[in-house]
Design brief:
Helices cover 71% and strands 0% of the residues. The protein is mostly helical and 133 residues long. It has two domains: 59 residues; 58 residues, no CATH class.
Length: 133
Amino acid sequence: MHDMKTPLALSIATLLLNTVVEIPLCFTHLGEAGMAAGTLVSFAMQAIVMLILLDRKVGGLGLNRIVQSTMKMLLACGLMVLACLAVERLPFYPQGAGRLASIGQLILLMTTGGAVYGGVCLATGLRSAIKSK
């Protein structure tokens, strides 16, 4: 679109936001995981802002058509996270750092997460999120 200034300005703003969010998070209980969280927040914001600007610049990408589906997927993701966190607290959840415990954890969390996400998508009528057209 021959606009090199806008992405550059947004990238600089993203790096500043990343620094402002990331450094304090490193000194919380998150430790170095705070760096990943800060990067996620800042670059997600950049992607959203750039998408909105592009939508305005080209006269519409039809983003309003996907808002409802996106909200349903976010709901499904949130419930999936809560279900996986709940499973980790169950008495039969495999404990330890060995290979067998890790495989058991992976199987339990993937099964729970997939079932909850798929179930919420089906319950909300969001079939395209679990099956390609």
